[in-house]
Amino acid sequence: MRNAARRLALVLPLCLPLAVTAFGSGANAAETAPIKVKVFVASMFEIGKNTGDRAGEFQHWYERYWKTSEPTPVKGALNPVHCDADGVCGSVLGMGKVNSSSSMQAILLDPRFDLSQAYFIISGVAGTPPARGTIGEVNWATWLVDYDLGHRWAPEEGEPGASTFMPRKGYEAYRLFHLNPDLVAWAMRLTADTPLKDSDAARAYRQRYPQEAARRAPFVGTGTHMTGDTFFHGPGMSEQAQYIAKLYGADDYVITEMEAAAVTLVIKRLHGDQRVMSLRGAVNYDQGNPTETTLQHLDPAPGQTAGGFAETVENIASVGARMTDHIVAHWADWREGVPAPGN
Predict the structure, then answer these.
(1) CA-to-CA distance for 256 and 231, rounded, in angstroms?
(2) For residues 41 and 333, what is the distance between their CA atoms, to the nearest angstrom?
(3) What would the pLDDT profile of 233-277 be if each residue is shown by its tens digit?
(4) Residue 260 and residue 250: Cα distance in Å, rounded?
(5) pLDDT (tens digit, 9 = 90+) per residue, 122-156?
(6) Is the pLDDT at 26 greater than 50, yes or no?
(7) What pLDDT digit, counting tens, does each position of 275-302 carry?
(8) Which residue from 87, 177, 247, 326 could staple onto 144, CB 3.0 to 4.6 Å apart?
(9) What does pTM read for this prediction?
(10) 326 torsion bin: left (phi>0), alpha (psi -120 to 50), beta (else)
């Protein structure tokens, strides 16, 4: 008995650290379990701070979901990720295709976030052609088209009146994204009647344009979003964007922006694109009115810019939050995929 007790006394000190280590590993694993993200909101820029000053694309989202959250820095991303207790996360990715998509990829690859079942809302401001949209409107993308993948030449070097763009073979898999029609239908069903803000300055600015669409009050709509690193402008470039959209078989071009197709590509390669949404609010027309040149519209005199920016960024978050809150509140129905419309 004395020998057995002696052997036990020798073995116990060796076993205790192993037991503590094993227990500690389990606790740490629980503490570091990845965040199950239900909705990820991707904005492109903020003006100043995330709260308390002039709002950019992120501030209204931040104040709604993450005002009390702790930011999580991500290596390779331009800005940290914020998450709430319900699985709603978001970040400011940066402007332009490379900037935004590289940030998105860094976040997607960070093991602290489980985005395998997440819905993505790519959210920001944009331009719109006056024949199809208005200042302050909020628009869900049906298609995303990359404006830049092809060949271009100066108008004087081609046939008079002909297009100066030709698609290039090899880009077919990532120049065009048809976003999930059921998801778009849900977005419109849940958000079409969202009350939208407007401003006196925006109302006055719209009257410079003769098009009926340009004079409309803000509304929630759908259409093709055109992604281009070049801030294209003027009636000629607008016509070319519509030409490209139709050439690729997409809907009418209604929104010009700089990130959505690129961000969608990196999401698609890791998780598919069936849970991706692009949500944009129009803060400018993609061309001047008939009394001004394109250069005059690009470099307006003081007091001649379009109004409605503050109202538009608030409209975007109001519309997007309706979709976000519905998904989170009905997660059991949305976790495995988009429910059939009407359910």
Answers:
(1) 8
(2) 20
(3) 999 999 999 999 999 999 999 999 999 999 999 999 999 999 999
(4) 15
(5) 999 999 999 999 999 999 999 999 999 989 889 88
(6) no
(7) 999 999 999 999 999 999 999 888 888 8
(8) 177
(9) 0.89
(10) alpha
pLDDT for res 7: 44
Residue 31 pLDDT:
62
d(CA 210, CA 274) in angstroms, rounded, equals 38
Residue for token pair 């104040």: 63
Provide the sign of the torsion angle of the four alpha carbons 219, 220, 221, 227, taken in this order: positive
Domains of the chain as residue ranges with CATH: 35-334 (3.40.50.1580)
